[in-house]
Amino acid sequence: MNHNRREFLRRTGAAGLAAVSLAGRGRAAERAEGRAARGSTGLPAGWRTLRKLDAHNHVFTPVQRPNADWAEVENLIEAADALGIERLYCSRPLTGGVLASIEAVREANDSVLAAMKRYPQRIAGYCFVQPGNGPAALDEIERCLAAGMIGVKLYNQFKFTDPVVFPVAERCIQHGIPFLGHSGFLTDPRALAQQPKASHALDFCALSRRYPELLLIMGHVNGGGDWEWAIKGLRDCPQVYLDTSGSVLEADTIERCVRELGHRRVLFATDGTLEGGVGKILAAQLTTEQREDIFWRNFQGILQRRRT
Amino acid sequence: MIIDLNASVGHYPFRRLSHRSPEEVVALMDRHGLDRAVVTSLHAVFYRDAHQGNAELHAAATAHGGRLVPVATVNPRYVGWERDLAEATGPWKMKAVALWPEYHGYSLGDSAGRAVLAALAERNLPVMLVQRLEDRRQRHAWDRAEDLTMATLLEAAKQHPRLRFLLVNWAGLDGARLAAAGLKGRCLIDFARQQVLFRKEVPKLLATLGAEAIAFGSHLPFDYVAPSLIKLANLEHLPAADHERIAWRNVAEFLGL
């Protein structure tokens, strides 16, 4: 079986609509419309064409290199086309707790920049930084923003309560850009041992109390870890947003987010689980306005606050 | 028509499920257009005497006139399990048997596991193996179960070459390795934790094992149903017969419904 994007689109009858990478909002909706006539048992009418901005995703491969393999990025765009996701906000964090050098960080960000260049209307970038790189990390933020990125992504190298993170937060405030942080309240000892400095809801609250003007997003409520704990932990921290991404698709997650935090703090995202990420927003018991706010309007509001 | 291969009823001890009772589960199926669901009893997993859960499930399935297709649970470390197996699959007509080695304190390769697998093979009853109920990274302090592994599965397949497998709520399955272990044609995999788009795990399994190996599954009521409905919609490019197989026919044929 051929898994490449062109063949997939040909077989789905959408190739004419999805030829290249020039899709903006209208084109993404058109592509999804091409499939909307097909059966979607049990799903709301027109679900593919509902506007969607994916606030947390990734470019996983080093596509900045010569002769790079673009298959994974192409698969990402193909999936976004099919699901009606207008734009994917991507980063490439260096994982495993690695205190990456600034050179490695730059290379990672270059892969996102390459993807942005290839798909300018579909992929936007978060700048990954390793706060331990000090002033060089701040310089990297400036480089990324100058190249068109929209925010900063931090992983689990340091707890977000660590003072080493504070200059990064201050630089985000200066530019009015979002700070998207990896999160997880890990109750499994082995999982916790793998990322002992992963921040959880209370760490986000502490950072938000120190910097209430920071556009702080707690990443992937369903990215592993106790999501009920995560939601409850954010109740008294009204400045912190929460994104809905992750591979866990447990029922009630979205309703609990809305009930405990209010729907305006909830951002649609997938973190690579695209069908599941869209599905849980469609399945959740929400009003039309709440669903639209979560799918795109809340995140658009964050982006409009940028000063850069 | 859709038959969901990956569903359960009952309370789960570590998280409140909004749809627990058989009536609530059927209402959830109605809301999402699911015609039938192959269900296990969570009570049977956690009661000391699993067969009490089977009895509840039998009553629930009978009350709902075929909407719920019950799967028996057998604990081969519990006294009288052979008689329980006979009752569940005889007069109660349950079409498959779920084993929960991680919850019942044995392994598929030890004497208890080998005995029950051999008994199922002898009776031509499919075994259902659920890789996990929840992501382990959020486990309750009392939840010490681990995910079933591919190695465990392949060894069981090797030891019991006539046994048929329902592989429910699995991720990370390698179709080529399953085929090499002789599982092509004798396993049915639900796609609740597999992606059609982007990661393309479902197309890869289709390529290696064929359309007869894949089934709709949602892991309700733990998980939202809509993600799996989206996956089914994203498979509409398949030939109609293959799509129908995945939506319901494979389950019906595998279980003789």
Chart the SSEs and their pairings.
The complex is a heterodimer of chains A (308) and B (257).
Chain A: H1 5-12, H2 25-36, E1 53-58, H3 71-83, E2 87-91, H4 102-118, E3 123-128, H5 135-146, E4 151-154, H6 166-175, E5 178-181, H7 189-194, H8 201-210, E6 215-218, H9 227-233, E7 240-243, H10 253-261, E8 266-267, H11 274-283, H12 288-303
Parallel strand pairs in A: 1-2, 2-3, 3-4, 4-5, 5-6, 6-7, 7-8
Chain B: E1 3-9, H1 22-32, E2 36-41, H2 42-46, H3 50-63, E3 68-70, E4 72-73, H4 81-89, E5 97-99, H5 101-104, H6 111-122, E6 127-130, H7 150-159, E7 165-168, H8 175-180, E8 187-190, H9 201-209, E9 214-215, H10 226-233, H11 240-255
Parallel strand pairs in B: 1-2, 2-3, 4-5, 5-6, 6-7, 7-8, 8-9
Name a few traits of the molecule.
heterodimer; A: alpha/beta; TIM Barrel; globular; B: 257 residues; alpha/beta; 9 strands; 14% strand
Could you walk me through the main structural features you see in this protein, from its secondary elements to its overall organization?
The complex is a heterodimer of chains A (308) and B (257). In chain A, helix 2 crosses helix 3, helix 4 runs parallel beside helix 5 and helix 9 runs parallel beside helix 10. Chain A is α/β, with parallel strands linked by helices and 308 residues long. The radius of gyration of chain A is 19 Å and the shape is globular. Chain A has an 8-stranded parallel sheet with strand order 1-2-3-4-5-6-7-8, with helices on both faces. Helix content of chain A is 42%, strand content 11%. The N terminus of chain A is likely disordered. In chain A, helix 6 links the parallel strand 4 and strand 5. Chain A has a single domain, classed as Alpha-Beta Barrel (TIM Barrel), CATH 3.20.20. Chain B is an alpha/beta fold. Chain B has a single domain, classed as TIM Barrel, CATH 3.20.20.140. In chain B, 40% of the residues lie in helices and 14% in strands. Chain B is built from 11 helices and 9 strands. Chain B has a 6-stranded parallel sheet with strand order 4-5-6-7-8-9, with helices on both faces. In chain B, strands 1-2-3 form a 3-stranded parallel sheet. In chain B, strand 4, helix 4 and strand 5 form a beta-alpha-beta unit. The longest helix of chain B is centred in the C-terminal third of the chain and has 16 residues. The two termini of chain B are 14 Å apart. In chain B, 55% of the residues are buried. The model of chain B has no long low-confidence stretch (mean pLDDT 98).
